[in-house]
Write a structure and sequence with these properties.
The chain is of the alpha/beta class and 372 residues long. It has 12 helices and 9 strands.
């Protein structure tokens, strides 16, 4: 029997709110996303279906839990304060306590693994003992000493929502790009510092500029070329964040890029077949690393509910308790790797048991093992 394929020990997940498969491919062909191009050549690249409703809070929760929205119950996208209040009185749905399902990082902790969460939507307040920067713009850190340390070592984080600033006219497009790039550079530096100074097995990173930028685009008053230029700037800024994550890769790490929540309706003119609704159920997954196929676009349908179970399987983590999704066997070079690994382990165990049984008889050791 051939030796099993090398197995990963760590995973990095980059979530992109509002990234679109067609735009990624188009900008890669134009040579504007060198890090995406570098990753696609070494990865599984697949447009996938999103659960309904295809909006941010439920979808990001699905990615992290493997559970359908009907299981995790993260609302869409606003919820009444309680059932006795009018429906027009709502709280934002990004509070992580809304989810009734276990997250992958919580399942990993059951196996003694450590996680770092940076700006992952719907994850704040923290659930677990890992390191976490707030899940809706890293203005909060769950460890007070670490907050001061990051400010000193990385610099201050500009936490305001630049989309609202641009829409309100308080900043122009050039300032918008500058603030956006600063936020992404800060995230990249903070991630680099955390993985160098803290123990970790699982790293979740969120980047939200694509979705807000899409919503901020005007329906009229600017040309299609102007809007495409805006999109290009946004994707290139994300591409640089991806480059910093690729630099963290080694032979034992998986990197998964996951789009969550489709592109806004006002972007339809930038696509050959643009969406007709505010969000669409077309998403994107790119995966690379040990035992992941290279340069392949699987024919089999993939679903976002499969991301968390697949990572749990590959990393020998417990599967999140309420996960609905399947393991995505089609992304693996050797789906039987775990079986082969276990067969070798059992073979070695049998050899040691027989060796010990012989020693037990020779030296009259007690207890003597039972050999089938």
């Amino acid at each position: 029997m051939r030796k099993p394929a090398p197995q990963p020990k760590k995973a990095i997940v980059l979530g992109l709110d509002g990234a679109h498969p067609e735009l990624v491919q188009q900008l890669v062909r134009e040579g504007k996303l060198p890090n995406f191009e570098r990753m696609v050549q070494q990865s599984v690249f697949k447009a996938v279906t999103e659960p309904f409703p295809a909006v941010t809070a439920p979808v990001w929760t699905t990615v992290a839990t493997g559970a359908c929205p009907g299981t995790h119950e993260a609302p869409d996208p606003f919820q009444p304060n309680n059932s006795s209040e009018p429906a027009d009185r709502a709280d934002p749905a990004f509070d992580g306590r809304n989810s009734k399902a276990e997250h992958l990082w919580q399942a990993a902790e059951r196996a003694g693994k450590r996680s770092i969460l940076v700006n992952w939507e719907t994850s704040w307040p923290p659930k677990g003992d890992g390191i976490q920067l707030e899940g809706y713009g890293p203005g909060l850190v769950n460890l007070d000493d670490l907050a001061a340390e990051l400010t000193e070592e990385v610099g201050p984080f500009f936490a305001s929502r630049v989309r609202e600033a641009m829409e309100g006219g308080s900043v122009d497009k050039a300032a918008f790009y500058e603030l956006q790039n600063y936020q992404h550079q800060w995230l990249a530096k903070a991630i680099g510092y955390l993985v160098e100074t803290q123990p970790w097995d699982l790293l979740f990173v969120g980047a939200q500029c694509l979705d807000p930028s899409g919503h901020a685009q005007p329906e009229s008053g600017s040309s299609v070329d102007d809007r495409r230029d805006n999109l290009s700037h946004n994707y290139q800024s994300i591409d640089r964040v991806l480059g910093s994550l690729l630099d963290l890769m080694d032979s034992e790490t998986i990197l998964a890029v996951v789009c969550a929540a489709g592109l806004g309706s006002n972007m339809r003119s930038e696509l050959p077949n643009g969406p007709a609704s505010a969000h669409q159920a077309s998403s994107l997954v790119i995966m690379m690393g040990p035992n992941i196929k290279k340069g392949v676009r699987p024919q089999r349908l993939l679903d976002l509910t499969g991301i968390a179970p697949t990572l749990a399987y590959l990393l020998d983590f417990p599967v999140p308790a309420q996960a609905d999704g399947p393991v995505l066997w089609g992304v693996m070079e050797d789906p039987d790797a775990k079986y082969k690994e276990m067969k070798l382990v059992r073979k070695q165990l049998d050899r040691w048991k027989k060796l010990y049984a012989g020693l037990a008889i020779e030296y009259d050791l007690n207890p003597r093992p039972e050999i089938d």
